[in-house]
Amino acid sequence: MITFDDFSKLDLRVGKILAVEPHPNAEKLYLVTVDIGEKTLSLVAGIKPFYPAEDLISKYVVVLINLEPKTIRGVLSQGMILAAQSPDDLSLIVCDKKVELGSKVR
Fold first, then answer.
1. Are 12 and 63 in contact (CB under 8 A)?
2. pLDDT at 30 over 90
3. Is residue 66 within a helix (H) or strand (E), and if so which, with residue range?
4. What is the pLDDT of residues 35-61, one digit of tens each?
5. How much is the pTM?
6. What is the mean pLDDT of the segment spanning 74-101?
7. 3-class secondary-structure state, position 22
8. Region for residue 49 given its phi and psi (left: phi exceeds 0; alpha: psi -120 to 50; beta: otherwise)
9. How many CB atoms lie within 10 A of CB 86?
10. How many CA atoms lie within 13 A of 24 on its CB side?
11. Taking 90 as the threshold, does the pLDDT of residue 65 lie above it?
12. Is there a contact between 12 and 64 (Cβ–Cβ < 8 Å)?
């Protein structure tokens, strides 16, 4: 179990997906560009089997922005888009209203 202090270290923000491209080195990954208000992040996301690229553009999603950057299959990822996953499906955590980009998620 984590403490509230541990949870409060997570910097979760609202971001808008601007662009989605296939990952050059991985069949199931996308390269996703997300605007979080103060800056734009480049993310690698394993959501390709669940969403066509065109369905992702302009979605308001929840992004973990203070995750240590990691190179995934040769491409640097600067955060993580949050999603709920069952054994055979995945659903992005999205905002049902357009809130200000970069808004903190609590």
1. yes
2. yes
3. none
4. 999 999 999 999 999 999 999 999 999
5. 0.94
6. 96
7. strand
8. alpha
9. 7
10. 3
11. yes
12. yes
